[in-house]
């Protein structure tokens, strides 16, 4: 297994794949935090004495999440493996000042996450056409 490319300290760059995986992981972690909060509220609701004004728990769910990123990017070839990696970073204010915002943004990425609702079920067998009664060929008359 190859090690990730070394990046000079202080450049705040990340490989695009690592950046996207981190964004997806952050959304999943946020859902876990909300689920844990809801479980704590269920326990508090069930532990409340009868007749008290305990609030019922709320369950939160992300129905769809979109993350838009505008990044400055640089293609870097690693010396040991010869692979090209796309390194991204947030916009450098110096580059924006020199070249303008449009020239400084090299990569626009949109990540959309949505749960799958229903998985399509494959047909067990294709439908068979109906056969005419009598079993013989039919005539148009």
Summarize the structure.
With 141 residues, the protein is of the alpha+beta class.
Instruction: Specify the helix fraction band.
Output: 25-40%
Strand order of the largest sheet: 1-3-2-4
Average residue-wise pLDDT = 75
**Biggest sheet character:** 4 strands, antiparallel
Helices, by number, come to: 3
End-to-end Cα distance, whole Å, is 75 Å
Region (Disordered): 118-141
Biased composition (Pro residues): 123-132
Features:
141 residues; flat; four-stranded antiparallel sheet; 30% helix
What does this structure look like?
The chain is of the alpha+beta class. It has three helices and four strands. It has helices at 16-47, 93-99, 101-104; strands spanning 14-15, 65-77, 84-89, 107-113. Strands 1-3-2-4 form a four-stranded antiparallel sheet. A hairpin with a 6-residue loop joins β2 (65-77) and β3 (84-89). 2% of the residues are buried. The mean pLDDT is 75. Residues 123-132 have a biased composition (Pro residues). Residues 118-141 are annotated as: Disordered.
């Amino acid at each position: 297994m190859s090690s990730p490319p070394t990046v000079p300290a202080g450049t705040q760059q990340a490989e695009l794949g690592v950046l996207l995986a981190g964004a997806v992981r952050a959304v999943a972690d946020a859902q876990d935090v909300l689920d844990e909060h809801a479980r704590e509220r269920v326990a508090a609701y069930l532990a409340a004495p009868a007749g008290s004004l305990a609030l019922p728990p709320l369950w939160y769910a992300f129905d769809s999440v979109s993350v838009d990123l505008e990044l400055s990017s640089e293609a870097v070839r690693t010396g040991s493996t010869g692979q090209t990696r796309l390194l991204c970073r947030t916009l450098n204010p110096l580059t924006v000042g020199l070249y303008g915002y449009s020239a400084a943004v090299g990569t626009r990425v949109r990540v959309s996450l949505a749960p799958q609702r229903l998985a399509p079920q494959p047909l067990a067998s294709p439908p068979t056409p109906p056969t005419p009664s009598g079993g013989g060929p039919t005539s148009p008359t």
